[in-house]
Structure formats: C-alpha cells, structure tokens
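Re: the request from the purification team.
They wanted to know what the chain is likely to look like in 3D before they choose a buffer screen. I agreed to run a prediction and write the result into the notebook, where they can find it.
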Amino acid sequence: MITVSLCLIVKNEESTLQRCLNSIKEIVDEIVIVDTGSTDKTIEIAAQFTNKVLEFPWEDDFSKARNFSFQQATKDYILWLDADDVLNEKDVEKFLELKKTLSSQVDAVAMDYYLDFDEYGNVAGKIKKYRLVRRMAGFKWIGAVHEYLDVEGKVESSNISIIHKSERHSKDRNLRIYKNKLARGEAFEARDLYYFANELKENGTYDKAIFYYNKFLNTEEGWIEDKISACSKLADCYFEKGEHEKEYIAILTSFIYDIPRPEFCCRLGYYFLERNELRNAIYWYYVAIQLEISTECSGFVNPAFSTWLPHLQLCVCYDRLQQYDLAYQHNESARKFRPEDPQILHNKQYLEVMKNRNLPSLGETYVGI
C-alpha cells in the first residue's frame, strides 16, 4: 500500500483549516503545512495535526511556496489541497481503497474538483486536477499566480472528488500581483495573459479584460481549455457591455478549438431566444442536451448546460409557439434535476392548464443564462 504526504500552503486560514484537516486526517500518513505569514490562529490549528509546520517568506509567487512544501514531503505520494478544500466520507473511503490498489508505477492521479453547487445540491462547476503525484517523479509547480503542476508520465483518472468550500476571497490580490509584474517590466507568457484577463474581468474592468483575452488568443499558444474558456469570458464581457454581436462572435470562436460544448450551445440558444428567433434557439438547446462531455475533459464543466437549463429554455420556446405539450414535457425534464424549483413547479401548474385551454403565453417569465 502506498503512503501519502499532504502538502498545504496557508495564510490566515483559521476559519477553514481545521475542517480541511479533519476531513483528510485518516487518509494521509504525513501532513506538511507551509505558512506564508499568518497573523491569526492558523499555525496554532496546524500544530494540532502535525509537527511539520514550516514558515516560508511570501514573495508574490505561489509556485515557490508550493514547491517548497513538496520538498518537505517524505512519503511515496503527495496529495495537495488548499485550506478551504474538503473530502466527504464517501470520497475518504474511495481514497483509502485507492491507497491499497494504486500501482507504484503511476505518476499522477486526477480527481474531480467541485467548485460550486446550486441551491438544490447539484454540482454547478467542476474541473479535473492532478491531486495525487508520485514524489520521486519530481513534478514542479509553474507560475507565480494560478500556478499549475507540470505533470507527465503514466497518469490515471479516479472517481474521487474534492469539494471547494471557500469562505472568503480577495478580489484584488492576484490582480495586484500581475500589475506588479507589469510594473517590473516582466514579460507575460500566454497563460499569464489569460489569467490577467480573468482578474480584470472579475474586477469589472471589461475593456482591459477584452484586450488581454484577445491578446492571449492571438498568440495561438496556451492550453486549449484556456482558449475555450477565454471565448466564454470574452462573451461575458461583451454581454456586460451590451455588445451582443461581438458576444455572438466570441461564442462562435470557441468552435475553432473543439466541437461545440453545451455551454456555448445554450448561449447561442439564448442569443436567438432574445431575438425571438425560436427555430434557431430550439436547434441549439437540443444540441446542448444531446452533447456529451467526456469524463476525461479537464476543463471547467457546468452540468446545468446539458441538463435542466436547456430543457427549461425549450419550455419557454415551445410556450411562445403555443406548443404546450412539448413545453410541458421539457419542463418535466427540467424538474427531474430541480424537483423543488418554485419556477418549474409554477410552470407545471400553468402548463397543465394551458394544454387544455388557450391562454396567454408565459412571455418573459424566464431569465436566460
């Protein structure tokens, strides 16, 4: 059976650290915690779980801190987490089984990372990440901000999920780091351009975000999932600015990099629905339902775009066409995923009447994506 070192870098994580460590203490054989300057009770909490609590001077570089934490590990494999990550009991059991069965020749294991949930407990955002890596493979972290682990060799994908439960987020921390890099005259690689644009967008600086997203795409470099994501975020920026034709072009640009993804099909559906071009809207919502995203997809995935959302929007389309039987069928399909949604329940009641009577349509009851 393999042994596992947990490596964490922390700073002022007193609100989440104990929860994280309690959730994984049964599955790891060593805990390494690297503190980058906490002023709260983080170190005190960490010391309750391990005697390997080390300090590392913060240099506006996440990779340096993570690489330092990896250097302190002594077990066969390294599991890395953030302080606001947790594993539930089911995934703890899966991890313990993985420890028994994993071949020592495997260099890295990918796990689902659940980033968000809707109000009904459905996963609203997930991504694959290599979370468990063989220590002797010597993998390094790259990038001062939004760092990534440079993994190669024999890799596997597991059915283990890690849940992100953030309780706080500094909107300007990463933006400040990038602006400092610019001020120092440091060259931005393609990946830097993409993440800098993300930070600008998150802070509402849409014109500059658009500039850097386009600059990133024009390099023709970088990870394909970042390119697809950049198209989505470009569309977001144009939507916020009310420039809907440019939003439309950004959506279509994503098709350069891969077959249409459900997210973009739903966005096209909404684009046409807003213009009351119902035939086109219906086409794209049906495509979204029929598409399947590979379980190996390592990019960001929101299951809503291939489940309840296109069905709900098809309900709107067919209601406007006064095809109430079809509208009802799609509302029922959406209800399978969100059985307690007040809007869907309202639609159910309304459409049960409309199938038998000629009443005014739902009109603008629904909001889009």
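For the purification team: The CA atoms of residues 193 and 215 lie 7 Å apart.
Please add any questions underneath this entry.
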